[in-house]
């Protein structure tokens, strides 16, 4: 228990005693004038002092006081009234000092065995507690002296402060006693750190004693922090070898909680900052790089959200911790993403893996890294870095992925889910340098056209309702036909009149390959709905008239181009949902094959989407795609050339090409650069030097 606590607990009793002493004195000795006081003689003064000294001695030896406390208080007041306060103060200090000096022997003579350190601390604490109680009791008797003479002399310490000064000088400042006390306290703290249970109230009282005596920092805190530094330096080295990173992080967190709890329980509040800084330095700062090298990639690979959150919180406490984590985080994204992009054998899954990886990293920044802007920007930079290491291919695969999602429609996802997927794809797409503004604007234009088509479809349906035109199928203004059945021709004419009436001067062009329909079909199993393309629709509707057709009969009736027709028949008779049977069986469709309706068709779903067979991209188509990409880039190349020449005025061919490569963020063939330079020369943006054809001049 601290000295202030003792004061507080006994203050009320002693104040009450003082008040009663004063009131009792006023009844017995109401001093109205000088002659009411006892006569001041040497005998009276000596007798009164002996009485007071005996009372102080009784208090110090914990024996009963022979005299009435009110009488003792009045005696002090009388002596002070007779101007003998200096002598009284000096005599009181001497008695207290003699008593405290006598206490030091019990500590000097105490056995020095380490087994007796706890009992030594208990004896020291009991001595301190007794001293505080005795000082408070003595002060209550000499309260008049404390509040008059001592208070009026600023150089004199109060009775309480005098007691602290004497205890510090004769007990705690003794080298051997202080050393043993501090070592005993440190031993108890070390035991507690090792998992043992210790008497926290004892430690709180003793450390409060050192704080009250103003020797806490010099005698205890410095040694305590040194021992703490030594302990955690050794522990950090050992545990980094023995434990994996998640276990180590939880251990560090637990240690920090324990040290904060010690501050609350018994250490002085001023110790908290240097103590926590010491623990963080030895358990985190000294092993920061090792922790990240050993465990960050594993935590990210396994998506250990809890440990990643803890890692961020712990490193944020260490100087330079977050910057080190940021760099390691950036390196991980570059490495993991680079593996996705640079593996041709994974091209089919590349876009989906990129989307999944981006979702995972977004989740980490939001949940674990507190949405720190620096980490978000580092992630963007890392994605931009690795996705552009493989020229052209990511953009090509993203385009194909978007195409497949749009063709699949709502079979694989709802409209809202598809919107979210496209939004995520656009985020990935923006990381690619090789796609210029023109290319991006085309993609954005496509999405705007999709929204416009939805609006037109709504308006078209409203017109049909007003004109009492029954729409038996879910149609779209973009659905169109080749050789169509009568119902579809009528609907096509209505749609044409509606669109041209809304947009005068435009030409409506039908795209048969992009149409789709839902057909209600009846099998032996029951009714089903088939979601099919327009070509599939035309083929299936023929089987309302007959159960069997040849390839030539279907080609003649529908007018579908030969290659497209064979892919359509393949999807209906050779795919997963075989609503037609092909004779003879096989994966390929030949001109001699015949098809008949499969009435035995079964499926667990009510609505079945039958996907069209996709054509494999040919080498010629790949070359064509690359050429179209270059057409989009050429404007950026031209702009960069003009910008460089405008600034430099005159440049050699090699320097111009070198500068151009530094500015462009996508790969360009030297031959293509030469074509763009020639184009600018032809258009009078620049010219060749007349004497040196490898040097160019800017034309203002």
TrEMBL record:
Instruction: Please name the GO terms that the record assigns under molecular function.
Output: ubiquitin protein ligase binding
Please give the Gene3D superfamilies that the UniProt record associates with this protein: Cullin Repeats (1.20.1310.10), Cullin, Chain C, Domain 2 (3.30.230.130), Winged helix-like DNA-binding domain superfamily/Winged helix DNA-binding domain (1.10.10.10)
Biological processes, Gene Ontology terms: protein ubiquitination; ubiquitin-dependent protein catabolic process
Keyword Transmembrane helix applies: no
Q: Kindly name one Pfam family recorded for this protein.
A: Cullin_Nedd8
Does the record carry Acyltransferase as a key word?
Answer: no
> One GO CC term of this entry?
cullin-RING ubiquitin ligase complex
Q: Which UniProt keywords apply?
A: Isopeptide bond, Ubl conjugation, Ubl conjugation pathway
Q: Which InterPro entries match?
A: Cullin, Cullin-like_AB, Cullin_CS, Cullin_homology, Cullin_homology_sf, Cullin_N, Cullin_neddylation_domain, Cullin_repeat-like_dom_sf
* Domain Cullin family profile, residue spans: 380-573
Q: In which pathway does it act?
A: Protein modification; protein ubiquitination
Which family does the UniProt entry place this protein in?
Belongs to the cullin family.
What is the name listed in the Swiss-Prot or TrEMBL entry for this protein?
Cullin 4A
Q: Which organism is it from?
A: Cyprinus carpio (Common carp)
């Amino acid at each position: 228990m601290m000295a202030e606590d003792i004061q507080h607990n006994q203050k009320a009793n002693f104040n009450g005693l003082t008040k009663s002493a004063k009131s009792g004195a006023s009844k017995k000795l109401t001093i109205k004038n000088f002659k009411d006081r006892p006569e001041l003689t040497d005998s009276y003064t000596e007798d009164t002092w002996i009485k007071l000294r005996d009372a102080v001695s009784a208090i110090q030896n914990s024996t009963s006081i022979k005299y009435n406390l009110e009488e003792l208080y009045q005696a002090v007041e009388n002596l002070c009234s007779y101007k003998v306060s200096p002598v009284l103060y000096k005599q009181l200090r001497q008695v207290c000092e003699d008593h405290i000096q006598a206490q030091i022997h019990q500590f000097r003579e105490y056995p020095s065995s380490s087994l007796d350190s706890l009992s030594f601390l208990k004896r020291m604490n009991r001595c301190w507690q007794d001293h505080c109680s005795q000082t408070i009791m003595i002060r209550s008797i000499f309260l008049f002296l404390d509040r008059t003479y001592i208070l009026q002399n600023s150089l004199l310490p109060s009775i309480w402060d005098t007691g602290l000064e004497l205890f510090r000088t004769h007990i705690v400042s003794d080298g051997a006693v202080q050393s043993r006390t501090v070592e005993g306290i440190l031993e108890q703290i070390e035991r507690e750190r090792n998992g043992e249970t210790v008497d926290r109230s004892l430690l709180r009282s003793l450390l409060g004693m050192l704080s009250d005596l103003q020797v806490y920092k010099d005698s205890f805190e410095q040694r305590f922090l040194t021992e703490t530094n030594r302990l955690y330096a050794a522990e950090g080295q050992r545990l980094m070898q023995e434990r994996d990173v998640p276990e180590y992080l939880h251990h560090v967190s637990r240690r920090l909680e324990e040290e904060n709890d010690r501050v609350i329980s018994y250490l002085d509040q001023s110790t908290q900052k240097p103590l926590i800084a010491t623990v963080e330095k030895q358990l985190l700062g000294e092993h920061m790089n090792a922790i990240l090298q050993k465990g960050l990639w594993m935590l990210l690979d396994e998506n250990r959200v809890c440990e990643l959150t803890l890692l961020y919180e712990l490193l944020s406490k260490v100087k330079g911790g977050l910057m080190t984590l940021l760099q390691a985080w950036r390196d991980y994204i570059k490495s993991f993403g680079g593996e996705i992009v640079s593996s041709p054998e994974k091209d089919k899954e590349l876009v989906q893996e990129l989307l999944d990886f981006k979702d995972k990293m977004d989740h980490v920044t939001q949940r674990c890294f507190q949405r720190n802007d620096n980490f978000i920007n580092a992630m963007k930079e890392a994605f931009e870095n690795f996705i552009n290491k493989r020229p052209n291919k990511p953009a090509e695969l993203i385009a194909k992925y978007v195409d497949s999602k749009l063709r699949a429609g709502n079979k694989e996802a709802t409209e809202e889910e598809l919107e979210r997927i496209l939004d995520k794809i656009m985020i990935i797409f923006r990381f690619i340098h090789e796609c210029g503004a023109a290319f991006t604007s085309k993609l954005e234009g496509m999405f705007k056209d999709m929204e416009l088509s939805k609006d037109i479809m709504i308006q078209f349906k409203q017109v049909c309702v007003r004109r009492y035109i029954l729409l038996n199928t879910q149609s779209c203004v973009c659905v169109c036909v080749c050789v169509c059945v009568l119902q579809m021709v009528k609907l096509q004419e209505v749609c044409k009149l509606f669109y041209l009436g809304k947009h005068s001067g435009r030409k409506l062009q039908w795209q048969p390959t992009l149409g789709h329909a839902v057909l209600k079909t009846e099998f032996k199993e029951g009714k089903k709905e088939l979601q099919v393309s327009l070509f599939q629709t035309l083929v299936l509707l023929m089987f309302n008239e007959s159960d069997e057709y040849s390839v030539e009969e279907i080609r003649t009736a529908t007018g579908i181009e030969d290659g497209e027709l064979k892919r359509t028949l393949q999807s209906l008779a050779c795919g997963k949902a075989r609503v037609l049977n092909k004779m003879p069986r096989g994966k390929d469709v030949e001109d001699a094959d015949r098809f008949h309706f499969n009435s035995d068709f079964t499926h667990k779903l009510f609505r079945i989407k039958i996907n069209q067979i996709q054509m494999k991209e040919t080498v010629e188509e790949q070359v064509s795609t690359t050429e179209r990409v270059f057409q989009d880039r050429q404007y950026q190349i031209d702009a960069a050339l003009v910008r460089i020449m405008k600034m430099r005025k005159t440049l050699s061919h090699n320097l111009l090409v070198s500068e151009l490569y530094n500015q462009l963020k996508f790969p360009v063939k030297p031959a293509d650069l030469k074509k763009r330079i020639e184009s600018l020369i032809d258009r009078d943006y620049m010219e060749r030097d007349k004497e040196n054809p490898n040097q160019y001049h800017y034309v203002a």
